[in-house]
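Design request, tokens follow.
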């Protein structure tokens, strides 16, 4: 671990070898991709996602699971919020992982977005406090080629898919109606709490990165995750949540 002149130790400067030993993984188990999901419902989402993988084991760091997809190592983590998402992307970016996929849900900031739509942004505004530490400016970017591939695959499944300037913010508890109106008027399409961080860290380490987010909240209508969906809306949201993971695994196959 690198020490500064004051004797302080910098986690950010740990070497790849140090991280690999700390994680307890062999060279053959360094993942080709990470799939990071922002969700409160950690147990549910983890069960859903790991059921698709083989030879799953939890790594020494909690809630990071190594499995195999078509015999290729993949890490899945349910990482809620930017402070957790940065850990997943940084750890495996430092080890040379090739692809980072952010999945989860988002709030719609434009009229016409409805539950079960999917946002796959090329550009993300960084307002969550971490992306700029990794070299991002006001915005960061996804891999446009792989994002287009993801959009096409989702559209072929029958989903309404959107691309626009997405926004990543600190917390759903720290956003007001006034903020929502301001973001919408500025042209932002949607908002989450992880995407800018995952993309910025991925870009820092030279990883390809894609974000696929199912629309849940209709924020301009004052409708949040606390408001129940009707059965058709819930079915659409559930289908979108399943599809983003399926397409993430397709992106792994294409590496």
């Amino acid at each position: 671990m690198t020490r500064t002149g004051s004797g302080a130790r910098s986690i950010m400067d740990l070497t790849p070898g140090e991280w690999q030993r700390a994680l307890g993984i062999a060279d053959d188990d360094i993942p080709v991709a990470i799939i990071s999901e922002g969700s409160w419902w950690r147990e549910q989402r983890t069960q859903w996602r790991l059921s698709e993988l083989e030879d799953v084991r939890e790594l020494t760091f909690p809630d990071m699971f190594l499995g195999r997809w078509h015999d290729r190592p993949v890490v899945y983590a349910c990482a809620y919020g930017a402070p957790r998402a940065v850990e997943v992307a940084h750890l495996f970016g430092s080890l040379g992982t090739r692809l980072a996929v952010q999945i989860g849900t988002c709030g719609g900031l434009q009229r016409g977005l409805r539950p079960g739509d999917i946002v796959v942004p090329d550009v993300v505004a960084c307002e969550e406090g971490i992306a700029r530490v990794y070299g991002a400016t006001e915005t960061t970017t996804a891999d446009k080629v792989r994002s287009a591939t993801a959009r096409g695959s989702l559209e072929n499944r029958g989903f309404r898919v959107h691309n626009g300037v997405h926004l990543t913010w600190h917390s759903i508890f720290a956003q007001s109606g006034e903020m929502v109106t301001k973001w919408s008027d500025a042209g932002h399409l949607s908002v989450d709490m992880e995407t800018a961080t995952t993309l910025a860290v991925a870009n820092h380490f030279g990883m390809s990165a894609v974000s696929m987010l199912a629309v849940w909240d209709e924020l301009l209508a004052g409708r949040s995750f606390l408001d129940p969906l009707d059965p058709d809306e819930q079915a659409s949201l559930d289908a979108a949540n399943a599809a983003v993971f399926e397409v993430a695994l397709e992106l792994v196959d294409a590496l």
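Comment from the thread starter after seeing the answer: thanks! The helical segments are 16-23, 42-50, 82-94, 144-156, 177-185, 195-205, 231-253.
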